[in-house]
């Protein structure tokens, strides 16, 4: 039962240059988790390219073998480190976790 984890963030920064740098750091940090998390089969991070005033800034789409693998990701030290930075620059977060094919 594959679980898809989708998270979107709106960054708090209003300066476009600083916001882009923060978004890039989030992307690099999250993509750096590839191969480090047991049960994670895919991870992609996208940066918004259209309608910056209306759209969210960063999106994470990741697949996990099951709910236990997703729970393990949440507490993995490498994820916790990246999440600390994300929390420091984010204004809003939206998340959905669902079973693929259900």
Automatic annotation (TrEMBL):
Domain Stress-response A/B barrel: 3-98
PROSITE patterns the record matches: S_R_A_B_BARREL (PS51502)
Protein name: Stress responsive A/B Barrel Domain
Originating species: Microterricola viridarii
Protein origin, superkingdom: Bacteria
UniProt cross-references to Pfam families, sorted A to Z: Dabb
